[in-house]
Amino acid sequence: MTTIADVWLSSSIDPWRRLGFTEYPIAQPDGSVVSCISIAGLGFRFLPHIVEPSPSGSCVTGWTVRSDEATTNSVDGVATRVIAELQPVPELTHQLAITAIDHVVITTGSLERTCGAITEQLGLPLKRIRDAGHGVRQGFHRAGSLILEIVERPDLAPETPAEIWGVVFVVEDLDATVAWLGPDAVGATRDAVQNGRRIASVKKEVGLGLPVALMSPHVR
Question: Whole-number mean pLDDT of the chain?
């Protein structure tokens, strides 16, 4: 089975520290050590070189996947490192009360091409396709407990490669988390696509290095 170990951020860790996240050291393939934080089982690895966000607002430059079979170093343009075993992660606490990763968003100019690469190279089959309207289509893959939401946008040329764009966290109490962050850091809550759930977006001025949204728990 293939799972996502971490994503690579070429942005400052300081905004995450200000939100109460504690970092730990993690080794790079070249033997150097960088900082990482872990949120609900997904790592965020902060690379030493800081870059300007892409036009879509993401500073994610790649990811690490754990797989028994994959050997690729790129999945439709997403730089990829494959490892055989996950590294131990310390138990850390933070103040956002995040309980799970709802999904990771990957943008692309071609849903068929990107979903095909994820299926073929990572062994993660396409579960379904959704027409979101206005020329937007979404494909969904599952990597362990994590959902990969692939989004084809009409403003992207068909040859545009895949990009890890954003992440949606599930929080224990959305209203409490939004109140703690305050209106300077997060927008107002609104209804999510999923019935009975609500969502709020962290403002780009916070500087987390990628778009982040917070979502209420699944309705049972």
Answer: 94
Q: Which two tokens stand for residue 31?
A: 């033997």
Helices of type H across the chain: 14-18, 111-122, 174-181
Q: What is the dihedral of CA 168, 173, 175, 179, to 10 degrees?
A: -90
Distance from C-alpha of 17 to C-alpha of 11, rounded to nearest angstrom: 13
Are 7 and 43 in contact by the 8 Å Cβ rule? The answer is yes
Work out the number of other CB atoms within 10 angstroms of the CB of residue 194. Answer: 13
User: Which residue, among 219, 215, 218, has the nearest Cα to 174 in the 3D structure?
Assistant: 215
pTM, 2 dp:
0.95
Domain 98-215: top CATH class: alpha beta
End-to-end CA, the chain: 27
